[in-house]
Amino acid sequence: MNDSKSLHSKIAKTVRDIPRSGIRDFFEIVSSREGVISLGIGEPDFVTPWHIREAASLALDRGMTSYTSNMGLLSLRRGISQYVAKKTNIQYRPEDEVLVTVGVSEGLDLAIRALVEPGDEVLYHEPSYVSYNPLIQFAYGVPVAIQTKKENGFRLTRQDLEENISDKTKVLLLNYPNNPTGAILSKEDVEDIAAFAIEHDLIVLTDEIYDELTYDQEHFSIISVPGMRERTIYLHGFSKAWAMTGWRMGFTCAPPELTEAMMKIHQYTMLCAPILSQEASLEALKQADTDIAYMKAEYKKRRNYIHASFEEMGIPSIRPEGAFYAFADISKFGMTAKEFALKLLDEENVACVPGTAFGKCGEGFIRCSYATSFDDIKEAMVRIARFIETL
Amino acid sequence: MNELLNLLKQNALESPENLAKMLGTSAEDVKQQITEFEKSGVIRAYQAVVNEEKLDSSLVTTVIEVKVTPESEGGFDRIADRISRFPEVDSVFLMSGGFDLLLFIKGRTMHESFSFVSDKLSIMPGVTSTATHFMMKTYKQNGIVMHTGDDDERLKVSP
Ligand SMILES: Cc1ncc(COP(=O)(O)O)c(C=O)c1O
């Protein structure tokens, strides 16, 4: 019983069968090197704005060290409800339609577990954030990945949906603005998808964690489409727009039945989100506009820079409209994404994430995060340009 | 504020080509805008932000609150202008509150700054009183934090 082989056999099959994340493998290689410029980081390079950190210190000084209501502090839920109403014109009752979670990560897990029964199919679009597929499998659901295409700007189209629906499909999981492609959807795209969801009686999970970070046009949420509030779980959080990844704060907005279902799981697995983080988030909502505007203006300049640099190098990337990633098409160099990323790391000490970490159709692409200082981005672009000259 | 000005305030040495890429315009356009800012006096000068503490012989900064009697014509402008012309005077601001002008003086020694106050400033017609403070240490100046070397604590690769 002591050898690792027999221990391995004790591990639940669903867990055993899920491969290690491609990101983790890559992380280990990068971590073993010195002087790397990393464009591989999926979190803001800003620290949380000072007034938010002050609010958390104050809460600590006041001895706020207890549990909160399972749903989260009511004051925070009220703030969240107002924030969402301001963004989308959709009202959620703080009492029974808003749930404070430990990051969008937990919200996703709750939503999927609350809905999926063994064998239920969940539609999602790739390239995608790395958690979706495993979370669906942990819930014994069947992940059905729709491969979005560069030609369509990595937008999810009605036709893509038609081709992948079956009578087992129960849930559609959306993520726009998108990690890793930076794609967003137009209002018309969203309305098409909504019509499809209604027609096929699907529940929609919409991960809008990057909703604040769009650079040319405002994000349009699917919950704003008539008939969608009733069938949607809206997921959002503080990590990206407020530079609060380490606080682990997210929330869900959904009709009472769905919120109650997620709440059951949350109550027994998490109890509640940490009180200090909740206090900090309450403060974050107070000056949301100014905090976010500042960081967004910085990201926009870097987005422009990185996109213009890739164009100059003859590497076409779709113009990233949201989040903080450029998804560059390196297929013409005749290497796999992983080979390209490893060689670039080896020769120029620049880390990018191979697109295949986000799904099969990420082959031929690398994800470059511009949540990195401008000086580093400039140097990375010089190195990448030099690197491709040698190919 | 104008985006280009913002960028130049962060780094006046950034090349027009890079500025253009960030702003989604052409290098020619950036150069032209800069020339216009310079001509119209919006941009007055380009300077380095120096951490004096790192130098062997750093300058002493003195901050002086000055009360003056405004003149019937021109108010504070004439006297402020006269004070500004002394080379040891680094900055001059008109303030609301308990005093009128705030001066920043740079000198090699405290004594040098002190003689400016006693020999030049306090005897000037219109100056009714002064209060002198010596600056001890600079933590942040013109938006730039003086200490360097904050490490990036983030994981090198994350989803
Ligand atoms: C699309 C997407 N969803 C969810 C998350 C998880 O965020 P959180 O920090 O709120 O758990 C991330 C983080 O990278 C993400 O990119």
Can you offer a commentary on this structure?
- The complex is a heterodimer of chains A (391) and B (159).
- Chain A has 391 residues and is of the alpha/beta class.
- Chain A has two domains: 4-48 and 290-389, Aspartate Aminotransferase, domain 1, CATH 3.90.1150.10; 50-287, 3-Layer(aba) Sandwich (Aspartate Aminotransferase, domain 2), CATH 3.40.640.10.
- Chain A is built from 14 helices and twelve strands.
- Chain A has helices at 4-10, 13-17, 22-31, 50-61, 74-88, 103-115, 132-138, 158-164, 187-199, 256-269, 275-286, 288-312, 337-348, 374-389, and strands at 37-38, 98-101, 121-126, 142-147, 169-174, 203-207, 232-237, 250-253, 325-329, 350-351, 353-354, 365-369.
- In chain A, the strands form three sheets. Chain A has a seven-stranded mixed β-sheet with strand order 2-8-7-6-5-3-4, sandwiched between helices. Chain A has a three-stranded antiparallel β-sheet with strand order 9-12-11. Chain A has a two-stranded parallel ribbon with strand order 1-10.
- In chain A, helix 9 links the parallel strand 5 and strand 6.
- In chain A, helix 4 packs across helix 11.
- The longest helix of chain A is centred in the C-terminal third of the chain and has 25 residues, at 288-312.
- With 159 residues, chain B is α+β, with helices and mostly antiparallel strands.
- Chain B has two domains: 3-40, Arc Repressor Mutant, subunit A (Orthogonal Bundle), CATH 1.10.10; 52-136, Lrp/AsnC effector binding domain/regulation of amino acid metabolism (RAM) domain (Alpha-Beta Plaits), CATH 3.30.70.920.
- In chain B, the strands form two sheets. Chain B has a four-stranded antiparallel β-sheet with strand order 2-3-1-4.
- In chain B, a hairpin with a 6-residue loop joins strand 2 and strand 3.
- In chain B, helix 2 (16-23) packs across helix 3 (27-40).
- Chain B is extended.
- The two termini of chain B are 35 Å apart.
- The complex binds pyridoxal-5'-phosphate.
